[in-house]
Amino acid sequence: MRLRLIFFMFIFSFLTFDKVEAQVVVGKWKTYDIFDKTKEESIVDVSIVNNQLFVRIHKIIPTEHINDICVNCSGKQKDQPILGMVILEGASYEDGVWKGAKILNAKNGKRYGCHISLDGDDLLRVRGFIGYPIFGKTLYWTRVKNNDFR
After folding, report:
1. Which of 37, 63, 100, 116 is the most buried (most CB within 10 A)?
2. What is the 3-state secondary structure (H, E, C) of 51-88?
3. How far apart, in whole angstroms, are the C-alpha atoms of residue 56 and residue 124?
4. pTM of the model
5. Residue among 82, 85, 49 nearest 66 (CA)
6. Model pLDDT for residues 69-95, shown as the tens digit of each residue
7. Which CATH fold would you assign to the domain 2-143?
8. Cα angle at 44 between 34 and 121, to 5 degrees?
9. What does the DSSP assignment read for 93-143?
């Protein structure tokens, strides 16, 4: 009987591990300039809705850009405020990576293929690319802790 219980717990934990791991990306993350990785740009809110990943700009850190609008964006985001804008929607979790969606660079209005994965507890690896992941750039976002008041 004890062996069955251990076996059941093992199978249950194995089946739920992927979902738990996928949920760890939820929260607020600090983003950095693509060319100057020490320059903070924004805080984004990462959420999961119906097993799909969404990223929304929660706060713009350089105060002179708080009221910027996305003049180079297309579609429904054209000429809309960047603050509060959803820059990624609909990525799916597969083999430890969120993929299958495009991420918006609100500075230039362009969309890029995107793969997002955890690189430790407090580091999010964001790979933006054109066409194939090999033709891209990797950024790292850091988790915003509760005591980080910026």
Report:
1. 116
2. CEEEEEEEEECCHHHCCCECCCCCHHHCCCECCCCEEE
3. 15
4. 0.82
5. 82
6. 999 999 999 999 999 999 999 999 999
7. Lipocalin (2.40.128)
8. 85
9. EETTEEEEEEEEETTTTEEEEEEEEESSTTEEEEEEESSSTTSEEEEEEEE
